Automatic annotation (TrEMBL):
One protein family per Pfam: Transglut_core
Organism: Pseudomonas coleopterorum
Protein name listed in UniProt: Transglutaminase family protein
Domain spans labelled Transglutaminase-like: 172-248
InterPro entries noted in UniProt: Bac_transglu_N, DUF2126, Papain-like_cys_pep_sf, Transglutaminase-like
Length: 783
């Protein structure tokens, strides 16, 4: 998930008198090849009376040439920029066949073009010895670069050095210490002596505090930090320029923003120029501040939001106690072994015994039974301790698909609602509470789809048999009203045939009453098992869901939910409510209901859940129109259909003029639906992402890549657009799953491009809207 940061950098020279300031060259604008997206940039110079000319040097770096017509007592240069910190994989590149292993030789054309980056300094004794100690046995190029870069970071101690200029490689090796620019220049010279073109890079380095502390090794910076930095870039045929940070021993990542790249350090200096001799006081200040960040599973709520959640939890607890509800909420969370650890029985820690982690039928997945708690404070304690113990035992809550999409553990998280004893169960004492929950859950599909699991589908009642709703209404109407006694087994006899999955199994129903009044292994315990939830990736996301349920129970205990008729959603269920916009709007109605009942549940407490369930694919803007692509839902049974693996995404536009523009995907117009907000429309796109190669009936065709065009009907041309690929656009065939969230995110981001619109005149065919699926364009249907 991206984080927008504001970087401020002030360089200030104060002179002892008014002096002549010669032309100054400033190299403090991000270079064109920066992989980190710079959203805005400003350069402010004092004295205000000056001339500025922007130009590019022979290497393509941006230069600001400043001329001061009058004498000045100071020179102050302030840079302010906003950058989007989004993970990318620094190893995501291909190499030409002749560059697969080091050593390799450039082609004649490459040698001619790279000549300035192959020039070397004279050999010196210590440098020669260090160079001779580098193993030249042919190995894969990436492995060689990783080893040499790490070795240099270990051999050269980092030194904060304020003196101008760059040390010679010999001096850096003799002293075994140097600043970042000294290590970078040493690595440049080593690479050139090894026959690899290299250049010196000056830039900004941004380091942000990690959301979670690492279990092994350093966790990185303890505060958000930025500074001027230097590193090396090497040229690899097929990949281009690749950054190596000899100070850290890592490849350059999203925190490295290049400003100037040059064959020599002197031509990459941030500021250069002459001034009249004088006394100078120099100051330098840099800061970085997070100004916007997407909610994410490692940072689901801020501390103020968590404090508000705690306060509401305590208040609803007091209400439940005053109403004598006797509600307890337990759960059966599941965790998955990460990095090959945890498959064996986890070790005990804290107050929770390791024996509570039970093996499931899925290899490497463990389940924990958390008994119902009537106290919000106890639930918070139990859940937070459990998640931390799982982390210490290297059990995680996320799995990743081969293309980088994230999912839960695959085994879900059932919630158990009831009382400490069967006679305390609020559902047996007030069966109308169960009726309220079932009816409300049905009438608000967001409660199903916002929290549902991708790999563990549990159907709603209206996703099973055709007459289920009709029969369910009759059965619910026969439940006792508040205050009336509930005969033993009545709930089970009435609802058991209806609360089932498509195969008729009550154990796989969304509302499982087997342990409420049924024949389950824990019969007569008065527990309602609410199923179909994806395993929440973070403890506070888990607790947000539990808090939502506590509030709903308190609300229905006071005012039962008893609609005369359950909503017949029909095809809207899988047309409208597969799209995140309508799920979000429906969920907002749920929160409005709770607010009216006196429970102010903040929608931002569930922002991370929305981002987890419907991750953003990418965005694009042109001519005042903003377009966003976001993953949508696809019903489980249809995902692996005979026509291939189906996926769905949502397109959302703002600033739209429907009389002039059309939105198209692969040359087909989209059926945009107005949201009620001026200029805002949404649509769904259903497409074949994968075609099974082993299927003898497969056509071999898919619908990807998807090219989205904003078409101006006045000019019959695309104003611009973007592309989304279901697989790596360069043909990389991943053989293994992502090792962590960063690699997963980089795989996702690599499949979206803010370029690639359809060229030339573009005349769209007439829009065809399906009566049953008016919000969705199914790419499988012929135009």
């Amino acid at each position: 998930m991206s984080i927008h940061v504001a970087l401020n950098h002030v360089t200030h020279y104060r002179y002892d008198r008014a002096i002549e300031v010669g032309p100054q060259v400033v190299r403090l604008r991000p270079a064109p090849h920066s992989r980190t997206r710079v959203l805005s940039y400003a350069l402010k110079v004092s004295p205000a009376q000056h001339f500025i000319n922007w130009q590019q040097d022979p290497q393509g770096n941006y230069l600001a040439r400043l001329v001061f017509p009058e004498k000045a007592t100071e020179l102050r240069i302030e840079v302010d920029l906003v950058a989007e910190i989004a993970v990318f994989n620094p190893f995501d590149f291909f190499l030409e066949p002749h560059a697969q292993c080091i050593p390799f030789a450039y082609t004649q054309e490459e040698q001619h073009e790279l000549a300035p980056y192959l020039e070397t300094l004279a050999l010196t004794p210590r440098f020669q010895a260090y160079l001779d100690g580098i193993d030249r046995t042919p190995i894969p190029s990436i492995d060689f670069l990783v080893r040499l870069n790490q070795r240099l970071s270990e051999d050269i101690r980092y030194l904060l050095r304020m003196e101008p200029g760059v040390q010679t490689p010999e001096h850096t090796l003799v002293t075994g210490a140097g600043s970042c620019r000294d290590s970078a220049w040493l690595l440049v010279q080593l690479m050139r002596r090894l026959g690899i073109a290299a250049r010196f890079v000056s830039g900004y380095l941004i380091q942000l505090v990690a959301d979670e502390q690492a279990l092994d090794g350093p966790s990185g910076t303890e505060v958000d930090f930025t500074d001027l930095h230097a590193w090396c870039e090497v040229y690899l045929p097929g990949a281009g320029w690749i950054g190596l940070d000899a100070t850290s021993g890592l490849f350059a990542g999203e925190g490295h923003i290049p400003l100037a790249c040059s064959p020599e350090p002197s031509s990459a200096a941030p500021i250069s120029g002459r001034v009249e001799p004088c006394e100078v006081r120099f100051s330098h200040r840099m800061s970085v501040q997070r100004i916007w960040q997407t909610p994410r599973v490692t940072w689901p709520v801020s501390e103020p939001q968590w404090a508000d959640m705690q306060a509401l939890g305590q208040r609803v607890d007091a209400d439940l106690q005053a109403l004598d509800v006797r509600l307890g909420i337990g759960s059966e969370p599941t965790f998955v072994a990460i990095e090959g650890a945890g498959v064996a029985q986890p070790q005990a820690s804290n107050e929770l015994p390791a024996s509570r982690f039970e093996n499931t039928s899925t290899a490497g997945v463990f389940r924990v039974d958390v008994p119902p708690s009537t106290s919000w404070a106890q639930s918070v304690k139990d859940v937070e301790e459990l998640y931390e113990q799982a982390r210490q035992n290297r059990l995680g809550t996320l799995r990743f698909m081969i293309d980088g999409r994230q999912m839960g553990t695959g085994a879900g998280n059932a919630l158990l609602l009831g009382g400490a004893r069967a006679e305390d169960s609020p559902f047996l004492r007030r069966p109308d509470l169960l009726r309220s929950l079932i009816g409300y859950w049905h009438d608000h599909p967001a409660l199903t789809y916002l929290f549902s699991g991708m790999a563990w589908p549990i159907p709603r009642v209206d996703e099973t048999r055709g007459d289920a709703l009709y029969e369910l209404e009759i059965a619910l109407s026969q439940l006792p009203e508040p205050g009336a006694p509930c005969p033993p087994g009545l709930i089970y006899r009435l609802l058991r045939p209806l609360l089932v999955d498509v195969a008729g199994d009550p154990d796989r129903a969304q509302f499982c009453i087997v342990e409420l009044q049924g024949d389950g292994p824990s019969e007569h315990q008065g527990l309602l098992r609410l199923q179909g939830f994806e395993m929440p990736p973070h403890a506070r996301m888990n607790l947000a869901l539990q808090l939502l349920l506590r509030c709903l129970v308190a609300r229905f205990w006071r005012t039962p939910y008893a609609p005369a008729r359950l909503t017949r959603w029909g095809t809207q269920l899988h047309d409208r409510f597969m799209l995140p916009y309508f799920i979000e709007r429906d969920f907002a109605e749920v929160l409005d209901d709770l607010d009216a009942a006196g429970y102010a549940v903040d929608s931002q407490w569930f922002a991370a859940q929305r981002a987890f369930r419907f991750p953003v694919i990418g965005d694009y803007a042109v001519a005042g129109i903003e377009l966003e692509l976001r993953h949508a839902l696809e019903p489980g049974p249809a995902r692996g259909s005979a026509s291939g693996t189906l996926e769905r995404l949502q397109v959302r536009v703002n600033g739209w003029l429907s009389d002039r523009y059309r939105l198209a995907v692969n040359g087909r117009p989209l059926p945009l639906t107005a949201t009620g907000r001026a200029g805002e429309f949404v649509a769904g796109v259903r497409y074949r992402a994968w075609q099974p190669a082993h299927d003898e009936h497969a056509t071999g065709q898919t619908d990807v890549p998807l090219t989205f065009d904003i078409v101006d009907t006045w000019t019959q041309r695309s104003l611009g657009g973007c592309q989304y690929h279901a697989a790596h656009p360069g043909g990389r065939n991943y053989q293994s799953l992502p090792v962590n969230a960063n690699e997963a995110e980089s795989r996702r981001l690599a499949r979206f491009f803010r370029i690639g619109h359809s060229p030339g005149p573009l005349v769209l065919p007439p829009l065809k809207v399906d009566d049953d699926w008016p919000m969705t364009l199914d790419m499988r249907r012929r135009p």
